[in-house]
Each structure stands twice: as C-alpha cells, then as structure tokens.
C-alpha cells in the first residue's frame, strides 16, 4: 500500500513538470532568493547593470536598480556585476542571506573584488511580510547551538516564541515539509545548512498566525562535488552532571552520542549525496515527589529516583540529481526512533503508573524543480511520513488517583499502539516580474490513523474529595484514608472506565490554496497581499478565506529606519488526532462509563472492587454542534527596526488579535440540580460533551529586540516578548468550562502560557581561536489552574475552582474539622465549598524558569595546505545546558488543600555537561 500511494502521488507531482517545454536553468529546492539594489558610491541607483551568479545567465537591474535571482542554492558563489562607466565587481557570496544584498559599484575601469559571507556585517531588513521577530541562523551561528537534537529544538522553539506563541507549539518544517502529526523531530545538526525562524508569518503561504507558536524552517545541506565527511562523538558522565532538583539519591545521569556523515558525488557531474547517522544513549532519571498515606492517616513523602533512559537512532540520506537542463530532482529519506522505559514516571506519578514508550518516524521527501524561464519557476514536492508508537505499561491494574497527592496503579493508556501514514503534496509556481514576485500554490494533505487504544479499559478510581452528607469538607487524601479503613465517607469520588472495541481508524483530507504577491512599489516601499483558502473534512470546513496584507517603508536614504505594518485573517485547522478523540468517544463502538461514590466492601482494594454494580452508570459521548464553524483569528501588527551607531539594530513589534468561533466543549446534558443522577434536559445518566464553536478570545503581543552581528569580538542578539492572550477555551477544543453556559471567570490566559519570554544568544571570540557562546531563555508567570478536585455540579468534569471564604471562616490548619474550613492563598482565604463567588480560571502563576546553555570550542586545522581538496580539522568542545543549575519548575501543586498545594514538585533537569569531538575531512 505504501508503494502504491507513493507512486500515485509521484505521478500527480511530476505530470505538471514534464509538460513544461520552455528552456530552463539549474534550480534548487532548498535554495533561497538573492536580491537587492545596485547603487553607486553616492547611493544613486544603477539601472541596466548585469548581475551573474557563477557565470550563469545574467539578470539586469530594473529602472529602480533592483535585481533578483528567484532561487540560489545554499553555499558559496561568485557574483559578477558589470555596468557601463563602472568598475567590474566580483564578489564572493555565501547563501542563504538573512537580508537583501545591496551592491555598490565604483566609478572607473578598475576591477573590484569583495568577499561577503552570510555572517558578514549586514543589516537584516524586514520584508513587507516579515516582522522584527524574523531571523535567519546561518552556518557560523548554527555551530554555537546545541548538538543534541532535543536541546537544539528547545533553543529554536524559544527563538520562535518571539512571535508571541508558546514555544512548544512552533511549527517545524524540513526542506519545505511541515512535520506531520507524529511529533516534532529535527534532523542531525550536522546535516543542516541554515534555519529560518518566523519567516514571513503574514504570508498567505503559511497557516498559523504569529502567536500560534511561530515557525522554524530547516534547510539541509546539498551534496558536494568532492568527498567529505566527519566522525563525531560526545560524552557526558554522572560525575559531570548535577543531581536533579527533587532527587534525594544519586542516579546514573549521562549521555553518549556518536555518529558519522559523508557527502560526495554519485557521478562525475550532476548528482551528489549527503548521508548521516547517529546513535544516542541517554542515562536519565525520573524523580517521584509524591505523598503517600497509610490507614492511620500518616502522610509520608514518596521520594524515588527511577531510571528513565533513552535509546535513539537518527539517520538521513539525501541526493540531488540534475535531470538535464530542465529539472533538478531532490530525494531524501530520514529515520528517527526512540525507546523510553518508565515514561510518564515522576512528580506525583508513581513508577507503576509508567510505561515503555517506543516511537518511530520515517519520512520520504521528493522535490522536482523546474525553472521555466529566468522569471518563472515551478516547484513540486511530495512527502510521505510513516510514524507510530507502542506503549507497554508497567502495570495493567486499575489506576488510583488521589487529588494532589499521588497517582498509582496501572497506566490508564494500556498496551496501546498506533500507525500513521501522512502524505502531502506541495505544488508552487513562482513568477518574477519587474516589480512583483508572485507565488501561487496548492497544499493537499492526506492522513490515515490506525490505532489500538485501550485507554481507561483498566478503570480509574478518583479520590477528589468533596462534601459529606453532614456538610463536612474532605480532601482527596482524607477520603482515601477512610477508604483504606473501610470507614464512612471513604467511597471513591468516582470510578471511570471504557468498554467496547479499542480499535479506531481515521481518514482525513485537508487542502489549502494560496496566492501571494510581493510588490516593490519603489526601492524603499514594498507592499504584499495574498489570500489563502483552506478546506478539510472531519470536521467539514469549507469557508475559510483568509486575506493577508503587509507594508514596509524605509524613509531615509541610508536605510537606517524600517517601518512595517501587517493585517490578516487566519483560520483554524483540526488535526487528525483531534478528530480521533471524537471518533473514540462516539458512544457506538465504545462506552465510557462513570459511577459516582461506588461502594467497595471493607477496606478499599482496587483489584477486587466491583464498582459498576454498585451504583448508577453514567455514560459519556462526544458530539459536534450542528452548524459547527471554523475558528477565525484577525491579527494586526505595527513594527520598526532602527540601525544605531556601531551597527546595533533595535527592533520592536506590536500585535493585536481577536478570535471568533473558537472550538471548545460543553456538557449540554448536565444535571439541573447538580446531582449526577438528577434530571437532565436530554435524558437521564448521560453526559453529552458537545464540541461547539462558541469560544472567543483577544489579546496583544509586544516584542523588543537588540542585535549586533558586526562587532569583531562579540556578536549577540537579545529580545523579550510579552504575551497577553485571553480566551475562554484554553486553546483546547476539549476544554470545558466549570459550569455549562456560564462564562464568569472563564476568560483567562492559557494554561502554561508565560506572560513573559526573554531570550538571547552571544558569541565571543577569545584568543587562540577559542570561541565561547551562550544561549539564554527564560519564561515568566506561566499560568496554571487552581481546582478543588471536586465535581460539585455533577457534570462529569472535576475542574471545580475554589470559592472565596466568608468572613469568620476558620482556617483548616487551626480547625481542620470545621465545615467549611479555609486555606490562606495569594488570592485570599479560599474554601472548597460553602463560600461565595469563585476564583477565576488560571489564577496561579508558576516561578520563572531560566535556562543558560554555554559552549566552549576550538577547531584545530590538521592540514597545512589551506587549498587542499580534503582539509582535515578536529573540533573540541565543552558544552553545558542549564549551566546555572537553576531549579526550573515544570509542575506546581494546584489542588486546594493537597499536601503540595502551591509548591513545585517536578522540574526540568539540572545542569548537564558534555565533551565533544568532531573530526572532519
């Protein structure tokens, strides 16, 4: 089936290309435009100048002095520029470039030679569709970033957050292909030629709005005409690394990474290859920081350090073929696999709640590029992705969850596995005229999921606490103590399980068409406009028309100022995994059952209790609202960049946004008297979780950045972004409000959304050719929701928030048997029930996180002849992540009255240090 699908798609992609009969020149799918102005020493424009790249077909600067090559392959090139009455200019250029390349010709007949690299002194001027958050990471800058793909991804995600989105939500594209739904995996760093962060986010070519997480575009290296390669390894041992913050015992903490890369010709001319393979063994530990309790009510900290290693393979193979003068074919295949025992262990999750997580991801990419004429180019791409996972639980016993204390028993995910096939076609035509660059494209996608998911088939007992018949308020841990003793008020709050077939199959089709026009009105005035149309099935979206506009103006002759503005509409997209949950809970193939306060005879034993036979069974189903509409965002932007003395560049951007028809879920059949078995509008004992397009949101984002890449000894970039996005959906289509139909307290910042993101990187050139670099990022005031663990309104969702205590309510620390009793919090005295009003959603704020990663490296030349075909070098580096060993909390106790309420109980790893060697030839 894989081969037949691939063959059909190759035919669909290739057919338009072979129909082109016009003469063509060499092009490259991984290339980038090279453009700018031709001027004299007085900065006057020079029309009619001839510009050649590597002796190829010349382009002529227009009446506005502008020249443009639509696609230049990454690497080193020679630019040859001639014009009447001016000296010939030969310039060594490395592409891609983060900015336009303006050419200055000298008067007279003397030949001029200049060397310009991508890291040379230049100013990155925004285009009409880019903003101040856009950045190109070139080869020299890339060498300062982490070698480990996971650490590199984190550093890139933080840079992409300059657009205002959550770092983890960034879209990653490799050689033009977005990562599929199986996850985000980077190619080996050694295979990367350059990276674009947040390019042209208002372009109609892209789906996500800037605050949707940003965009990271990775372009891999082409093969070389002569053989080159490298062997590399890194090592990190336990004695080099800091113990994790909540660990009380030593653990095996280390990393061994090794691999190779090789590039060279396949035939003498016209084809080459690049391949790399690496293996990583990571010794890590999961730290359990929970609270246990015995039948006597004695609470005991559960502090365990559990081995959680990773075993990973990453490899890729890429080849370029010149098919005559008309076409260039680029084919690549990459593989990623990872095995992670004891996954999901840590924090309040006990070891028996973990599972072995084995994942794989394979991609086949084909691209065919035809340059129909110097001004028209066609790009056809096809991508096939096969990915999946297998979960092997440490235990299949029923799960037991005590709110805010621990989660034990078996994993609720069960022995699951999934296989996904994701295919995409990207077909673009690029047309270059005198003042316009027009791009027209289509982006169909097909997704097939085949999943075996016995989620909750083992059952989950929840001890969330609640109010007794006598009015006493119990926490989840007090309720659990009563259960261990077989005492009154010891029944679990609920038992939930799923029965039926664990098999789920989903097919989904999505497609987008776009037109984008970048218009150079004058050399200093640019205007962009475009429209994107999106359609998909499951759910049906057919009216997603999204216009986009951009404007850029450089008011001064020396181009030290740039002002830009943008406006656009963006439409939401449903992923196949999101729809899979709708199918899973359709109420036909599976039954999701809940019993409130089930009775278990004697002392609580989850393996012998028969909860479904002790109470009324309430079923839950998911449905889609009739007339469900697609989500829309509107977004506007104003920004600037200013070149200061000494070539410092200051930039700033301000965004505002509105969101309509945001997807969220409400239980439209909630009980009318707050009792789970009470009367309901559409039948008894049934939760109807309806997906609705009733959500709303709004917000603003502010970005400020300062950079200087021109100083001799130090180059740096620093920035900060303030993200204040408010909505009543938590950016989650399955989010449900505390009470159906009530919006009070629901408008808030999103869970885990930081109000502030700060980031920066710097490279320092030390004596003896030693290079020191640092990458820093921090997140401040991440929001989290404060709950009680209760379901007071009986709607099946344990998301009730605390209430404000009435005057005179005693504290639980003074009189724990009072009903109610309260807790002192940063928001005043709160009670689980019996108070007034309700705390707003996501009022909690996590501590700041700070990550400082450093690298110290030195490259030794092993070949004395600098012009040798195979120069040999040895690079030695010492790298550290979280070098300050700052406690970066990842979870805070959020259940009122629980033992760890308001306290961090899980964190990201402490300081890690590794030594690396890289031999290149």
Explain what this protein looks like in three dimensions.
It is globular and about 100 Å long. Among the domains are: 24-116, Carboxypeptidase-like, regulatory domain (Immunoglobulin-like, Sandwich); 135-220, no CATH class. The two termini are 41 Å apart. It contains five helices and 54 strands. It has a 30-stranded mixed β-sheet that branches. Strands 3-2-5-6-8 form a five-stranded mixed β-sheet, with no helix packed on it. 6% of the residues lie in helices and 49% in strands. The model is unreliable at 1-29 and 109-126 (pLDDT under 50). The protein is mainly beta.
Q: Which homologous superfamily in CATH is the superfamily of the domain at 24-116?
A: Carboxypeptidase-like, regulatory domain
Residues in helices, as a percent range: under 10%
Query: What is the CATH architecture descriptor of the domain at 24-116?
Result: Sandwich
Mean pLDDT: 85
Low-confidence stretches: 1-29, 109-126
How many strands, which pairing sense, and closed or not: the largest β-sheet?
30 strands, mixed
The structure class reads mainly beta
Give the CATH level 1 class of the domain at 24-116. Answer: Mainly Beta
Globular, elongated, flat, extended or rod-shaped: what is the shape?
globular
The total of helices stands at 5
Q: Work out the radius of gyration.
A: 30 Å
Number of strands: 54
C-alpha end-to-end distance: 41 Å
Strand content: over 45%
């Amino acid at each position: 089936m894989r081969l037949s699908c691939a063959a059909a798609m190759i035919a669909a992609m290739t057919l338009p290309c072979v129909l082109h009969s016009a003469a063509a020149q060499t092009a490259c799918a991984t290339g980038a435009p090279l453009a700018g102005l031709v001027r004299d020493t007085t900065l006057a424009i020079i029309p009619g100048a001839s510009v050649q790249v590597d002796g190829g077909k010349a382009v002529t600067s227009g009446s506005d002095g502008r020249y443009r090559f639509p696609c230049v392959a990454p690497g080193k090139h020679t630019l040859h520029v001639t014009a009447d009455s001016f000296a010939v200019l030969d310039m060594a250029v490395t592409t891609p470039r983060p900015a336009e390349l303006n050419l200055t010709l000298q008067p007279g007949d003397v030949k001029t030679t200049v060397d310009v690299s991508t890291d040379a002194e230049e100013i990155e001027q925004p285009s009409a569709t880019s903003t101040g958050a856009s950045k190109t990471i070139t080869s020299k800058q890339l060498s300062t970033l982490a070698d480990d793909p996971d650490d590199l991804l984190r550093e890139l995600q933080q840079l992409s957050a300059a657009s205002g989105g959550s770092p983890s939500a960034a879209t990653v594209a490799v050689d033009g292909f977005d990562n599929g739904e199986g996850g985000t995996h980077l190619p080996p760093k050694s295979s990367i030629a350059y990276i674009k962060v947040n390019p042209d986010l208002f372009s109609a070519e892209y789906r996500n709005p800037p605050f949707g997480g940003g965009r990271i575009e990775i372009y891999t290296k082409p093969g070389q005409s002569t053989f080159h390669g490298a062997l590399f390894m890194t090592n990190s041992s336990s004695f080099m690394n800091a113990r994790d913050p909540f660990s009380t015992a030593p653990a095996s903490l280390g990393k061994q990474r090794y691999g190779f890369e090789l590039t060279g010709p396949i035939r003498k001319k016209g084809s080459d290859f690049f391949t790399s393979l690496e293996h990583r063994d990571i010794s890590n530990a999961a730290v359990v920081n929970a609270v246990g309790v015995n039948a006597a009510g004695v609470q005991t900290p559960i502090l365990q350090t559990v081995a959680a290693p990773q075993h990973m393979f990453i490899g890729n193979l890429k080849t370029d073929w010149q098919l005559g003068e008309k076409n260039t074919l680029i084919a690549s295949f990459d593989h990623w696999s990872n095995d992670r025992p004891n996954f999901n262990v840590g924090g309040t999750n006990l070891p028996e709640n973990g599972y072995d997580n084995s994942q794989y991801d394979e991609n086949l990419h084909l691209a065919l590029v035809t340059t129909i004429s110097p001004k028209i180019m066609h790009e056809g791409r096809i991508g096939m992705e096969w990915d999946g996972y297998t979960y092997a639980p440490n235990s299949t016993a029923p799960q037991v969850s005590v709110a805010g204390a621990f989660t034990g028993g078996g994993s609720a995910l069960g022995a699951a596995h999934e296989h996904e096939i994701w295919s995409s076609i990207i077909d673009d035509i690029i047309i270059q005229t005198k003042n316009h660059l027009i791009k027209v494209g289509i982006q169909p996608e097909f997704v097939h999921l085949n999943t075996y998911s016995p989620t909750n088939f083992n059952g989950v007992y929840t001890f969330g606490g609640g109010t007794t018949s006598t009015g006493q308020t119990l926490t989840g841990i007090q309720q659990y103590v009563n259960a261990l003793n077989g005492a009154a008020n010891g029944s679990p709050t609920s038992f939930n399980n799923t029965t039926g077939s664990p098999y789920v199959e989903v097919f989904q089709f999505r497609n987008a068409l776009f037109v984008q026009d970048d218009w150079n009105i004058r050399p200093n005035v640019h205007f962009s406009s475009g429209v994107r149309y999106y359609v998909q099935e499951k759910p049906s979206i057919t009216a997603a028309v999204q216009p986009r506009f951009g404007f850029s103006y450089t008011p001064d002759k020396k181009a030290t100022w740039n002002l830009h503005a943008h406006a656009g509409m963006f439409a939401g997209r449903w992923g196949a995994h999101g729809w899979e949950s709708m199918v899973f809970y359709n109420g036909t193939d599976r039954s999701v059952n809940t019993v409130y306060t089930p009775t278990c005879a004697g002392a609580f034993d989850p393996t012998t209790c028969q909860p479904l036979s002790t109470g009324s069974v309430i079923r839950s189903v998911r449905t889609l609202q009739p007339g469900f509409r697609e989500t829309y965002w509107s977004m506007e932007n104003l920004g600037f960049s200013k070149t200061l003395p000494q070539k410092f560049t200051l930039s700033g951007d301000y965004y505002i946004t509105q969101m309509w028809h945001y997807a969220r879920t409400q239980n439209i059949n909630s009980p009318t008297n707050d009792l789970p078995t009470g009367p309901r509008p559409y039948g008894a004992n049934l939760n109807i979780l309806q997906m609705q397009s009733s959500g709303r949101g709004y917000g603003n984002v502010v970005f400020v950045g300062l950079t200087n890449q021109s100083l001799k000894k130090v180059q740096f970039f620093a920035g900060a972004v303030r993200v204040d996005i408010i909505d009543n959906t938590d950016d989650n289509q399955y989010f449900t409000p505390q009470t159906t139909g009530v919006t009070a307290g629901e408008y808030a910042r999103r869970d885990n959304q930081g109000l502030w993101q700060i980031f920066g990187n710097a490279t320092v050139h030390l004596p003896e050719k030693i290079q020191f670099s640092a990458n820093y990022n921090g997140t401040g005031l991440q929001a989290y929701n404060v709950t009680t663990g209760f379901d007071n309104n009986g709607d099946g969702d344990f998301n009730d928030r605390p209430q404000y205590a009435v005057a005179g309510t005693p504290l639980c620390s003074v009189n724990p048997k009072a009903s109610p009793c309260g807790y002192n919090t940063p928001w005043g005295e709160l009670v689980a029930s019996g108070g007034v009003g309700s705390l707003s959603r996501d009022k909690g704020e996590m501590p700041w996180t700070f990550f400082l990663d450093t690298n110290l490296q030195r490259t030794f030349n092993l070949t004395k002849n600098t012009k040798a075909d195979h120069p040999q070098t040895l690079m030695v580096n010492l790298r550290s992540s979280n070098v300050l060993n700052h406690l970066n909390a990842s979870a805070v106790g959020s259940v009122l009255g629980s033992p760890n309420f308001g306290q961090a109980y899980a964190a990201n790893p402490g300081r890690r240090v590794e030594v690396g060697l890289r031999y290149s030839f």
